[in-house]
Design goal:
Order of helices and strands: HEHHEHEHEHEHEHEEHHHEEHEEHEH
Helix content: 25-40%
Distance between the termini: 36 Å
Number of helices: 14
Largest sheet: 7 strands, mixed
Shape: globular
Radius of gyration: 21 Å
Strand order of the largest sheet: 2-8-7-6-5-3-4
CATH class of the largest domain: Alpha Beta
Number of domains: 2
């Protein structure tokens, strides 16, 4: 069944305004039901968890519900769900929690296509004698080639860090294949799923990662984030909370200062929404509904991406930075490009009067933009769409772009 766009758009109050939002990789619009949950938590159960009195019991249960909801969303166990303020924060926590396991001479592999959130924390270990290697994409094809990873990995490799989908290129990386290579070498795999999670269903049982992190504010929720880790791996990590938390206090030893309770409770609304999309498609309940909801999301995004890509490919002045395919298995609906003889800032500013929100820059994937030699042209123009964007909005964007191209 095709996505019911009238229903979809009715769930996001901001979409009733004049603007078409196509900067979603920086943060999607928020569901009304998410805001209602945040409000309800703050107004009816805003107390510390863990006490014996009734309001605290209610608060505790609501936070527990959030862990269960994201476990359901990711096909995992609630005890494997770590929550926090952002993907950047959670990856820094994970890096700190690995101090006891990383010795001088050990190796970590990062990529140059990742957001800095999945690079910077690992580089800090160099000061302790850990070797950090860069797996770089082919600058002509923009692909992370698996042979490149194989040439870098060694018996000293402890961790490989890679994005599931680049927030610049839109490319979907083959995580299960990468996981096989990594695990064959006895190493672990940490995946930044921020740019992938709004677009496809997540299944931790089949993906092959050891740690997987994404931000709920990119997936229709509040400013909040989730990290999944295999239970045995989480237990091995250092405690980064107060000294009296035991090594087995999973996930709490990785949530210093406690989490944002109202955001945790509010984020459940985003999980419920995707499941409702699946039910409307006739998929029943549970995981089947989540997968069906994302199948419809993926098809809608394929259609709007194809419309934009067809236009961009028709312009000789445009260079698409990433795969030219709009196929569901190849890319998400994040499309970046440059324009010959025009800076990216000027292209975006020419679109602003049409009330279409796009953006230019490096998008915290600074090393990729620098390696591609695009800093002097204000980075790339990025159009990052999600399923609530429409073909009509894409046509509006095209009409606004056309004079600049």
């Amino acid at each position: 069944m095709a996505l019911d766009l009238d229903f979809v758009r009715s769930q996001f109050p901001a979409l009733a305004g004049e603007w078409a939002f196509m900067d979603n990789a920086g943060g999607s619009q928020t569901l009304a039901r998410v805001a209602e949950r945040v409000s309800d938590y703050l107004l009816t159960s805003n107390v510390q968890t863990g006490a014996s009195y009734a309001p605290s019991l209610k608060s505790t249960e609501r936070v527990r519900e959030a862990r269960k909801a994201y476990a359901h969303y990711m096909n995992a166990d609630p005890s494997e769900i770590v929550m926090g303020a952002s993907t950047t924060a959670l990856l820094r926590y994970l890096s700190e929690a690995m101090v006891g396991r990383l010795q001088p001479g050990d190796e970590i592999i990062v990529t140059n296509v990742d957001h800095e959130a999945n690079i910077g924390p690992w580089l800090k270990h160099e000061a302790r004698g850990v070797v950090v290697k860069f797996w770089r994409c082919n600058p002509e094809t923009f692909e992370l080639e698996l042979d490149g990873l194989k040439s870098l990995i060694s018996e000293r490799t402890k961790l490989v860090c890679v994005t599931h989908a680049s927030n610049i290129l839109g490319t979907i990386n083959p995580i299960p294949e990468i996981a096989e290579i990594v695990h064959a070498a006895g190493a672990e795999l940490c995946v930044d799923g921020v740019a992938y999670a709004p677009h496809r269903a997540l299944d931790m049982q089949t993906l092959g990662a050891d740690y997987y992190v994404f931000s709920s504010y990119k997936v229709f929720g509040p400013h909040f984030a989730v990290m999944w880790g295999r239970k045995d791996k989480l237990r091995e990590l250092d405690n980064i909370y107060h000294f009296f938390f035991s090594k087995d206090s999973v996930p709490h030893k990785l949530e210093p200062g406690n989490i944002n309770y109202e955001c945790a409770y509010g984020a459940i609304g985003a999980v419920d929404y995707v499941e409702e999309l699946g039910r409307k498609a006739g998929a029943g309940e549970g995981r089947a509904a989540i997968e069906a909801g994302f199948a419809d999301i993926a098809e809608q995004e394929r259609a709007i991406t194809a419309r934009l890509m067809d236009f961009l490919e028709s312009r000789n002045s445009v260079r698409i930075i990433g795969r030219r395919s709009s196929a569901i298995e190849d890319r998400v609906a994040t499309v970046s490009f440059t324009v010959e003889d025009r800076g990216s800032k000027a292209v975006v500013e020419a679109v602003d009067p049409a009330k279409v929100g796009i953006r230019h820059g490096h998008f915290y994937a600074y090393r990729l933009i620098d390696d591609l030699g695009l800093m002097d042209r204000n980075g790339v123009v990025r159009v990052s769409m999600v399923h609530y964007n429409t073909l009509e909005e894409v046509d509006r964007l095209i009409a606004a772009l056309e004079p600049s191209l």
